Structure formats: C-alpha cells, structure tokens
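Lecture notes, continued. The same structure-token format from the folding unit now serves as the input rather than the output. Read the line below as a description of shape only.
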C-alpha cells in the first residue's frame, strides 16, 4: 500500500513559514488551528501557548520589535477578535507581525457557519495587508505575499485568514511551487537609495543651515540605522531627538541624544525646535505628535525636511517643505560625510539638557523629602539604580509611562546605561508591558528585565504573567500602585465642573500576593526605604516577581498640558 505523502493545509502553512525563517509562533491553541500546530511541531518550530489571544499578539509584537524579524500570532476565529488590540499596537510601531486566523469554513461562507466572522475586513484598517486564502494550492504564495508586504517599504503587521476546510484538507507537499519564485526563502529587504540630484539639494540646505536638528522615528530602527544616527550626530555635532512613543533609537547616555521631541516630557526640545532653521525628520511621520508639521511646533520660517524609506510614508508627510525617498542608513551615510560641524549649537542643547536634569533632580528631592508615599518619578529613578548596563527596562501605563520617560532621560544624563527600553506605541495602549517584558527576557535570558507598570495597565494585561511562569522567564514587575486610573482621574478633575473624578478608582489590590499564589515572588513596598532591598530580593529570587509599591498620584507634565487643552476643546 502506497504511503500517503500529502500534507494538510495547516502543515503547508507551517512549512512555508519555516522556509521563510520564522522561528517563533505565539498562540492560544484552538481546534480550528490544530493542523497548523501539528505542522509547527513537525517542523520543530518554537510555539508559545498564551493565556489569551491579545497576549499572544503582544508577545509576537515584542519579539518582532527586538529581533526586527517577522513573527507569527496564530488564533482561531473568535480569538481573532481578542487579538485586534495587538494588531493596533503592532501597526502603530510598524512591527512586522504575521497574524493568522484559522477561520470559518469557506464552503459555507456567508451562510452563518460556525464562528464565522469577517476577519479580513476587520483587520484591513489595522494592518498593511489582509487577505483570505481560498485555494490550498496557493498557501505558499500567500505566505510569500504577506512576508513581502510585512518587510518591504515600511514594515508593518499583516493578516492571513485560512478557512478551516482548507486548513484540514490534504495537498501535495510541493503544492503551488511550480511557479516563480521557486526559492521562497526570505530575501534581503530592498532598500531605497536616494536620487543623487535630490540628495544633493537636501545636503546643500544642511550645509547652509546654522541651527539644524535631527528628529528620528521608527523608520531608523527598522532600517537598523541607529548606530549611523548616533555617529552622524557625534561627528557633525548635530543634536538628535526621538519621536515620542516609538522605539528608543539611542541610549539616553549617548552624547548626541538630547531627549524626546516632546515639549512636555522634555522641555528643552521646545526652544531647540523653535530656534532650529532646519529640521531633518528621518523615518518619522508628521502626525498628531508632530502637530501634523504645523506651527507652533514647527515655525513657519523653518525648513522641514522628511526623509523616508517608502512612498507610503512620504504620502503621510506631504506637509513637509522637502521630501526625500531614501533608506535612512543611506541618507545618514551621505550626511555624515559633509564637511560641517555645529559645535556651539550642539553644546547649547547639552547645556539645556544639563540644566533641565538638575532642575528635575532638585524638584524630586524636595518632593521626596516631604515623606509619605513615593512619587512615581522617584520610583522610576530608584528602580534604575538597581539595574545593570545590559538590563532591560519596560514601562507601561499613563502617568507611569510619562514619568518613566522623564526618569530615563535624567538617569541617562548622569551615566545610567540600559540594554534596552520598551513601552507602548503611539496609541498608548495599556497592558503591553508584561508581554514586552517576557519578550525581552526570552531574547536576553541572562539579563534582568524590569517592568514598571501602572496598576491600571497591569489589570489590562497582567494575565500575560502566566506565560512568564510557563516559559520559565523570571521577570520583575514593579507596580506603581496609586489605586486607580490616575491619568484619567486627574484629567476629569480639571474638566468636570464639580472638580471631582468618576469611575476611575480601584480597590486595594494585593498584586504581590497574587504573584505569590501563582508560584512567584511578591513584596509590598510602602516606603522608599523598603524599595531597593525589595528589588534586590525580587531580581535575585530566580522567580517571576511583583513588587507592589504604594505611590502617590502625581499628574505628569504631558497630562497637565492635555488637561489644559481639554478645558477648551479636544485632546488635540
């Protein structure tokens, strides 16, 4: 009797992803996805089973952000709805996650099949490419199409829907491989090299500038050009700022790095950008964070140039005075070669940063001297003091996030180095911190990984802690516990006519006891003096740990500014 060599559609899917180089799959296992899971097992691919589909999506996102390689989030049809927030978060950071839905049967599509949902239409606005595979012979082709979309031009998440009847049907192992491309392994990502004439015009403007600055965005990270960015800033003595919320391109201790291009979280960026006669935004987008390229953020008399690696990104930057289609690395190489320096302008920004840091240290010293519950800024500074140069810091929440942004700039100026920093993207989605911490620990097993999370953020995504236990990835979570959604309540108190807040309080939740109950290490911290010893015990315990810190609610500068705007109109 002849041996049956045919493969189920799910196994073909796994085989195609393995050929591309996918090494990690994140899922909540479901019956609709079993053939794919069998294929991943047969192909010896690492599969992480997660307690929730949103957690699976965030873990895949975190893994992709750190490795800069596509990862897979596999979900069933009802689980797809749970994964939608992770699509949103990944899309905001241009993270090339391949979301795959084992969907309802193709044969009865539109007739109310079991768990039928129009996943392709729902995903379409959130991802770069969303499609249903309707022919099992074309599974490899659509994996190739999705991979190309995720990695080419501007990287971004994509979505494939594979109906369950195709998932379970059998096909020849080489189905669909009779057409080009015959070799479907991952190819080098195409890069856009600048038009020499257009590049020369931009470089001429740089040479004539008296006060130029660089604002780096996510495109620099995905182009793996952050080292070139740092060297360019140092060689030319040109100050470098980071677009808020996106991946940190330079360590805070870098000589060229000044801080976020955010007037509230880093006050000295306001005079720097206001006084600059030329702004080079590399790999960024003129969205709400950049006031859509308009005054007063970018003065009218200033020249604003956007350099992006894809036509799609340039379309978002039509407000710029000049546009250049170029791989960030290629542009930075050309920029670094010009014979110019801006020493006095560069030194002025460093002086402003030094003064800003000193002012904040004086302020937090006075606040801490008052006693009582810890200030969230002091919390973040004290956490960093216990961390080594290669350790990873993740923060999550509203005010918790914003205070930590200020703290890493302060500590970085005074020499604090970290192996990496992760945080929510430009949608400020709560609940990503623990998942990102697990991703960082999986890829840096010998380093401490500390997550500073607001209590509200932890309640949004803390269930992902189970994946840390399951995979034996001992991270330390420090909870900034102020008893509610403080970021929101503070806005309400400035907006509501009665000056009160509403529907934002939590009960006194014993997060540390919860962690102990799951088999981890937990500690309650009520005073600043208790924090450092508790952190040392948590990080050396070899267990997943929660340090539950009772903090006071203190409005951050950006929330205060937002509240002022809301008094008159909207958040924008």
């Amino acid at each position: 009797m002849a041996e049956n060599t045919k493969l189920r559609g799910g196994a073909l899917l796994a085989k195609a992803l393995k050929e591309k180089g996918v090494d990690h799959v994140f899922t909540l296992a479901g019956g609709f996805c079993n053939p794919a899971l069998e294929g991943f097992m047969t192909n010896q691919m690492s599969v992480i089973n997660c307690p929730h589909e949103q957690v699976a999506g965030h873990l895949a996102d975190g893994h992709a952000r750190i490795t800069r390689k596509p990862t897979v989030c596999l979900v069933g049809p009802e689980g797809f709805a749970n994964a939608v927030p992770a699509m949103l978060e990944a899309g905001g950071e241009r993270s090339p996650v391949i979301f795959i839905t084992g969907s309802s049967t193709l044969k009865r599509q539109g007739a109310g099949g079991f768990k039928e949902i129009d996943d392709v239409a729902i995903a379409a606005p959130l991802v770069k490419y969303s499609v249903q595979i309707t022919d099992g012979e074309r599974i490899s082709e659509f994996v190739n199409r999705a991979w190309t979309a995720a990695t080419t031009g501007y990287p971004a998440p994509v979505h494939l829907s594979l109906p369950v009847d195709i998932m379970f049907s059998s096909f020849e192992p080489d189905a669909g491989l009779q057409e080009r491309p015959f070799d479907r392994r991952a190819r080098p990502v195409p890069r856009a090299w600048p038009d020499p004439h257009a590049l020369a015009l931009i470089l001429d403007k740089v040479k004539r500038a008296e006060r130029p600055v660089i604002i780096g965005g996510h495109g620099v990270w995905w182009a793996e050009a952050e080292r070139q960015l740092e060297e360019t800033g140092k060689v030319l003595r040109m100050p470098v700022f980071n677009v808020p919320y996106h991946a940190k391109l330079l360590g805070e201790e870098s000589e060229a790095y000044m801080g976020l291009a955010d007037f509230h979280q880093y006050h000295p960026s306001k005079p720097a950008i206001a006084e600059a006669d030329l702004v080079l935004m590399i790999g960024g987008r003129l969205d709400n964070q950049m006031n859509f390229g308009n005054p007063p953020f970018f003065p009218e008399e200033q020249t604003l140039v956007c350099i992006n690696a894809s036509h799609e990104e340039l379309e978002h930057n039509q407000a710029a005075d000049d546009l250049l289609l170029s791989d960030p690395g290629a542009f930075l190489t050309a920029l670094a070669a010009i014979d110019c320096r801006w020493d006095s302008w560069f030194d002025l920004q460093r002086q402003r940063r030094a003064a800003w840091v000193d002012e904040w240290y004086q302020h937090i010293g006075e606040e801490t001297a008052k006693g009582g519950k810890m200030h969230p800024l002091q919390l973040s500074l004290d956490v960093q003091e216990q961390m080594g140069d290669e350790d990873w810091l993740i923060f999550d929440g509203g005010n918790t996030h914003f205070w930590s942004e200020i703290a890493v700039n302060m500590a970085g100026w005074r020499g604090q180095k970290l192996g990496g920093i992760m945080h929510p993207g430009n949608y400020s989605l709560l609940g990503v911190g623990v998942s990102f911490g697990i991703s960082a620990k999986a890829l840096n097993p010998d380093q401490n990984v500390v997550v500073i999370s607001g209590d509200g953020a932890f309640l949004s995504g803390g269930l992902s802690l189970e994946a840390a236990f399951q995979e034996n990835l001992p991270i330390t979570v420090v909870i900034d516990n102020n008893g509610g959604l403080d970021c929101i309540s503070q806005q309400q108190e400035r907006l509501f006519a009665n000056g009160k807040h509403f529907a934002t309080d939590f009960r006194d939740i014993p997060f540390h006891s919860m962690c102990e109950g799951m088999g981890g290490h937990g500690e309650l911290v009520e005073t600043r003096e208790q924090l450092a010893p508790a952190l040392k015990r948590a990080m050396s315990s070899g267990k997943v740990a929660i340090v539950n810190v009772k903090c006071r609610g203190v409005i951050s500068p950006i929330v205060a500014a937002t509240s002022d705007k809301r008094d008159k109109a909207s958040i924008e």
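Point for the exam: Confidence is low (pLDDT under 50) at residues 566-572.
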